[in-house]
């Protein structure tokens, strides 16, 4: 089913003092059709289980917002294939990451995968499929935000008064602001945001009427070592149900208005959110240590 994975054994020795194989590693720009936009993620194809400390060291070395580690698992059937998946920022392991999951699916299909995929993760089984137009579609849990009490210093750190504040998945703070112009002009105090008890701060607004997308978003996560994330799939597990209810629609197009930017096709299906997007491989190499 796969063309070049799991990788073959190797006679060299890694810095951890045991026999280590070379491992394929890729850098993929996710939620974009153009290189050097969207959100870059590293994807490492493991030959088997590795210690968390080693995974964290690799993620710190690659120094992207997320590194995805894929581990082959015994397959109960060929459709869907099950593969272990873990995500690390340069500083911490996270429970859910959309863009690195999309990047992982993109690489597997690029290598010759033909079946649907189920990633086994800290957030349960996550389905991945390839659309006819080359998109990768992620099947994630819906995590609608719930109303939260006022958060001390949030408005001051953002530099704008929110119109609604809640909490989403991963203890994210969820903020709606007045309009797209307000969202795009945000220049938050990152130091102030780092004092907020949250993985990150999701900021969202309705798009301007003339835009081809429905909603806009930005995501700040200084506590996870990411001042502003270019495109955040996991945040849209809250964005999608929030705006689907507000707009009385189950299908939306979202734009994350970071410096790199990225588009996400969203569909709410019961207690799940389908996240669709394109991806581009920009680096292909080998991890030796």
Can you give keywords for this protein?
289 residues; alpha+beta; Diaminopimelate Epimerase, Chain A, domain 1; 2 domains; 18-stranded mixed β-sheet; 6 helices; 17% helix; globular
Could you write a compact summary of the structure shown?
This protein has 289 residues and is an alpha+beta fold. The chain has helices at 52-62, 98-110, 154-158, 180-184, 190-193, 236-247; strands spanning 23-30, 39-45, 67-72, 81-88, 93-94, 117-121, 124-130, 136-141, 146-147, 164-167, 173-176, 201-206, 215-221, 226-229, 251-256, 262-269, 272-277, 279-287.
Write the topology of this structure.
Layout (H helix, E strand, L loop, with lengths): L22 E8 L8 E7 L6 H11 L4 E6 L8 E8 L4 E2 L3 H13 L6 E5 L2 E7 L5 E6 L4 E2 L6 H5 L5 E4 L5 E4 L3 H5 L5 H4 L7 E6 L8 E7 L4 E4 L6 H12 L3 E6 L5 E8 L2 E6 L1 E9 L2
Parallel strand pairs: 2-3, 4-6, 11-12, 13-15
Antiparallel strand pairs: 1-2, 1-18, 3-4, 4-5, 6-7, 7-8, 8-17, 9-10, 10-11, 12-13, 13-14, 15-16, 16-17
Task: Explain this structure.
The structure is a single chain. The protein is an alpha+beta fold and 289 residues long. The protein has helices at 52-62, 98-110, 154-158, 180-184, 190-193, 236-247, and strands at residues 23-30, 39-45, 67-72, 81-88, 93-94, 117-121, 124-130, 136-141, 146-147, 164-167, 173-176, 201-206, 215-221, 226-229, 251-256, 262-269, 272-277, 279-287. The chain has 6 helices and 18 strands. It has an 18-stranded mixed β-sheet that branches.
């Amino acid at each position: 089913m796969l063309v070049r994975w799991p990788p073959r054994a190797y006679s060299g020795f890694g810095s951890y003092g045991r026999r280590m194989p070379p491992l394929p590693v890729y850098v993929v720009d996710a939620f974009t059709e153009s290189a050097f936009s969207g959100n870059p993620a590293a994807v490492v194809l493991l030959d088997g289980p590795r210690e968390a400390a080693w995974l964290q060291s690799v993620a710190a070395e690659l120094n992207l917002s997320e590194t995805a580690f894929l581990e082959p698992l015994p397959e109960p059937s060929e459709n869907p294939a099950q593969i272990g998946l873990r995500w690390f920022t340069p500083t911490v392991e996270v429970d859910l990451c959309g863009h690195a999951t999309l990047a992982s699916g993109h690489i597997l299909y690029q290598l010759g995968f033909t079946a649907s995929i189920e990633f086994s993760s800290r957030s349960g089984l996550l389905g991945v499929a390839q659309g006819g137009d080359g998109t990768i579609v992620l099947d994630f849990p819906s995590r609608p935000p719930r109303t939260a009490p006022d958060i001390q210093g949030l408005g001051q750190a953002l530099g704008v008064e929110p119109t609604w504040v809640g909490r989403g998945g991963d203890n994210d703070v969820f903020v709606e602001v007045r309009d797209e112009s307000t969202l795009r002009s945000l220049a938050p105090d990152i130091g102030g945001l780092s004092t907020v008890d949250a993985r990150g701060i999701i900021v969202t607004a309705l798009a301007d009427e003339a835009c081809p997308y429905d909603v806009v978003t930005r995501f700040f996560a200084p506590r996870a070592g990411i001042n502003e994330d270019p495109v955040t799939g996991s945040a849209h597990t809250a964005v999608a149900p929030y705006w689907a209810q507000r707009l009385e629609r189950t299908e939306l197009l979202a734009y994350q208005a970071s410096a790199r930017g990225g588009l996400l096709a969203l569909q709410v299906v019961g207690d799940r959110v389908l996240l669709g997007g394109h991806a581009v491989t920009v680096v292909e190499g080998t991890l030796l240590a």
